[in-house]
Amino acid sequence: MISTVVYRGNIIFTKSSEKFTVIENGYIFVKNGKVDKIKSELSKEDEVYEIIDYKDKLIIPGFIDLHLHAPQYANLGLGMDKQLLEWLDEYAFPEESKFKDLMYTEKVYKKVVKELWRCGTTRSVVFGSVHKDATKILMDLFIKSGLGAFVGKVNMDRNSPDYIIEDTQKSINDTEEIVCEYSNKSRLVKPIITPRFVPSCSSQVMQGIGAIAKKYNIPVQSHLSENISEIQWVKELHPECKEYGNVYNKFGLFGEVPTIMAHCIYSSEREMNLIKNNGVIAVHCPTSNLNVATGIMPVRKFMEKGITVGLGCDISGGHKISIPNVMVAAVQMSKMKWLESDKTYKPLTTAEVFYMGTKAGGKFFGKVGSFEEGYEFDALIIDDSSLGDLDRTIEERLQRYIYIGDDRNIVERYVAGQKISEPKF
Amino acid sequence: MISTVVYRGNIIFTKSSEKFTVIENGYIFVKNGKVDKIKSELSKEDEVYEIIDYKDKLIIPGFIDLHLHAPQYANLGLGMDKQLLEWLDEYAFPEESKFKDLMYTEKVYKKVVKELWRCGTTRSVVFGSVHKDATKILMDLFIKSGLGAFVGKVNMDRNSPDYIIEDTQKSINDTEEIVCEYSNKSRLVKPIITPRFVPSCSSQVMQGIGAIAKKYNIPVQSHLSENISEIQWVKELHPECKEYGNVYNKFGLFGEVPTIMAHCIYSSEREMNLIKNNGVIAVHCPTSNLNVATGIMPVRKFMEKGITVGLGCDISGGHKISIPNVMVAAVQMSKMKWLESDKTYKPLTTAEVFYMGTKAGGKFFGKVGSFEEGYEFDALIIDDSSLGDLDRTIEERLQRYIYIGDDRNIVERYVAGQKISEPKF
Known about the structure:
Two copies of one chain form a homodimer. By secondary structure, the first copy, chain A, is an alpha/beta fold. Chain A has two domains: 4-61 and 371-419, Roll (Urease, subunit C, domain 1); 63-365, Alpha-Beta Barrel (TIM Barrel). In chain A, 36% of the residues lie in helices and 22% in strands. Chain A contains 13 helices and 17 strands. The first copy, chain A, has helices at residues 84-97, 102-118, 132-145, 168-182, 203-216, 228-237, 244-250, 269-277, 286-291, 299-304, 323-340, 350-362, 394-404, and strands spanning 4-13, 21-31, 34-39, 50-61, 63-69, 121-127, 148-152, 154-155, 189-191, 194-195, 220-224, 259-263, 281-284, 309-311, 379-382, 410-415, 418-419. In chain A, the strands form four sheets. A seven-stranded mixed beta sheet of chain A has the order 3-2-1-4-15-16-17. In chain A, strands 5-6-7-9 form a four-stranded parallel beta sheet. Chain A has a four-stranded parallel beta sheet with strand order 11-12-13-14. In chain A, a hairpin with a 2-residue loop joins strand 2 and strand 3. The interface between A and B is large, with 37 and 37 residues. Chains A, B: GO terms for molecular function: guanine deaminase activity. Chains A, B: Its cofactor is Zn(2+).
C-alpha cells in the first residue's frame, strides 16, 4: 500500500554545501518514508493527502553523527584538564572495561540512545567497546528506539591495558558473530568493522577483520592521524607503510568497503590523496580536537580536494552529543585556521557545516540527510519561538537555532518517515 | 538586627586560581548577606540558626560577566558568517539604533536581564547603547531584578554611522546626568563610564567623560587591542600615543578609577605593563573572539604578569550569555594557544577559568565571587543529578556541570545574601 503524508512548514536543507535551499511555508510530500517532492503551494488534487501542519516552525533534516564512543558516555565533561594519555588511562579505558558487566551496559547505553534522540541525532556511527554482548545490547536498544545507526564492536589486541586487551582470534570471531547476527536484523541498525586504531590492532587482527569486511560487505570505521606522536608511533610499528592510512589500506580497511576515518588533522598531502582516491569519508570532530588539544583539521583543504567530510561529536573527547554544538565549533575552529593560515583557508560557513552534519554524513547511510527526491524522510521540527523574533529569514532562524538553541527547541523527530518518540526504556 | 542563615551542601569555590577549595557536605554561615565562616560540621551552639539544607547539591559562587552588550541581545546567533565590519554595519549598529524607541528597549532589556538570571550570572558589567533613557530603563530593570550590575551609556561621537553618532556635548551631558541620578540609587546597580572604543570617541568626549569619572569616582569600561587593523587605526588617529592603551590613559580612562578593558588580544609587552601598573582588569571573551575571528588572547601571559583577567560573554559577538560556556571556550582556546606557542603557554585549567569567572571578575564589585570571610553571599545552587553519577569528586561534578550542564541545573540564585527569583517583568 502506498502512503503519502504531506508536512507543511518552513523547509530548509542543503543540497550542496554552497548554500541553503529554502521553501518558506512549503510542503514536503513523503511517500513510503521517502521524500517524493516539495511544493510551495498545494493544488486541488493534493487535497486527498493527510497534511500535518507545522505552521511557522522549521523543518530540517535530522542530524548525522559519524563518530562517537558510546561506552564513554558516563565520562562526559570529566577529565578535561588531563593530557591525552593520562585521560585514556584514568578515564577512557577504565570506563570502557566496565562494559563486561551487562547490567551496567544496559543502564549506560539506554542513556546514550536517549541522549541522541534528545539532541536530534537521527543517525549515528558508533564505537562500542571490545565486548561482544555489550555491543549487541547497544544495537538492540538502537533497534527499539527507531533511530538509525552503525554500531561497531571495537577490536584492540595490542598496546592496550591488560584489563581491556583482547585475544586476537576471539576478537576476530566475536566480530564475525555480530556481523552474521545483525547484518539483516534491522533495516536501520547495522554492524560496522571497528579497529580502534592502528597502534592497538595487530596485523593479524586487521587481516582478520579486513577479510570479514570484504566477505560480508560491511563498512569500516576507525581513527586516523589525530596527533603527531600517534603518527610517529604508527610509522615505527609499520615502517613498510608510507602513510598511516596505508596501514589500514594494506588490510582492506581503507575504502574497499565504505569507510569512515575520524580526525585526519595531520594527514599529509599523500594521505589526503589516498583518502580521496579510495572514497574514504573523513570525520571532523572539532569539540574533541579542542578538548584533547590535538589541533585544527584543515577542513577547507579536504573540501577543495573533493573529499567528503562529515561531523562527529566524539564523546567523551567531545563533551556534548549535540551536532549543532559541533557545527558551531567547526565554524569557530575554521576561523582560527583562517587566521593561522594567514587567511589562506576561508572560514567554513553555516551552510557548509550544516551540509557536513546532514547530507555529507548522510551519504554513509544511503540517501539520507537532504529533502531531495528519493531521500529518506529524516527530519526535525524546530520550534524556535523562544529564541527571538520570528520576523527573520529562514536561514537566519536556522543559524540562530544552531548557535543558541538546544534540545528544548526540537519538537518532533522523524527517521525514514516514522515519527520517533522518546525511547521508552 | 543581625541575621545569620546557614546553607548546607557541597561547597566549592576558588580562593586562588591554582585550585578549588572544597567542603563536602559543609555549612556556609551567612551573616547579613556576607559569608561569616564555613564549617564542616555543626556544633551545639549552631542550633539556633536557620539551616537551609541543599543536601547533595553543589553550592558555588554566582557567575561574573565583565563584558556584554545588552542592546545586541536580539542579534544573538545571527550574522555569524559575516566579517567584523559587515557584521557591525548589517547587524550591530542598526540594532543598537533601535534603542531610541523606549517600547522596544523595554521589551529587549527585560529579556536580557531574565537571561542573565537564567544563566546564573549574578553580576555583570554591561554596555548599553548611546541612548540615555534606554540606559536608565536597563538600570531600573536590573534594580528590580535584584542582580548586580554596572551599566554604561555608550559614548561615540566620531567614525560611526550617521544614524547612531552622538553630538559631543550631549554625549558628555547625558553621561553626567546618569551618573548623578544613579550613583546612589541602588547598592547593587551602578553607572560606569563607557567610551565605545578609541576610534569612535573624539578626544573632546574622552576628556569630558574622563573628568566625570574622576569627579564622581565612577569606574570605566571599554575595548582594547581586539584586532590588528583596529590597533593600526588607533595609531593613525593618535600618533602621539605609543600604545592603544595610552590613549585612554591620556584622558584618565585607564586605571585612575577602576577600569575594565575587553579583549586585549594583541596587547604589546609595553601595553601589558601599562595594564599591570595601572591595575586595569583585562576581560577575556573567547566565544566572541572565535565568532568574530579576532584571535586568541594569550591569557597565560597576562596571568604570569599578575594582571587580573576576568571573563565576558560579549554578546552578540559571543553567542551565549552563559559564563560556563565562556569558561569552556577559554580552556579550549588556551589549548589551541598552547599548540600554537609550541607548548610555551600551558593550557588553562578548569580551576583557573572558574576563578576568572567568579573571584577575579568579582573584584570589580568589591568582595564578591568567593566564599571567604567577608565576601557577599552570591551563590548558585546546582542540581547536577541529571548529568550523571553523583559518586564523583566535587571537583569532577563541578567540571561536568560547566561542560555539559545548563540553566536547567541551577535551582537557586543568591545575590548579597538575597534569594533572587525569576524577574517578574
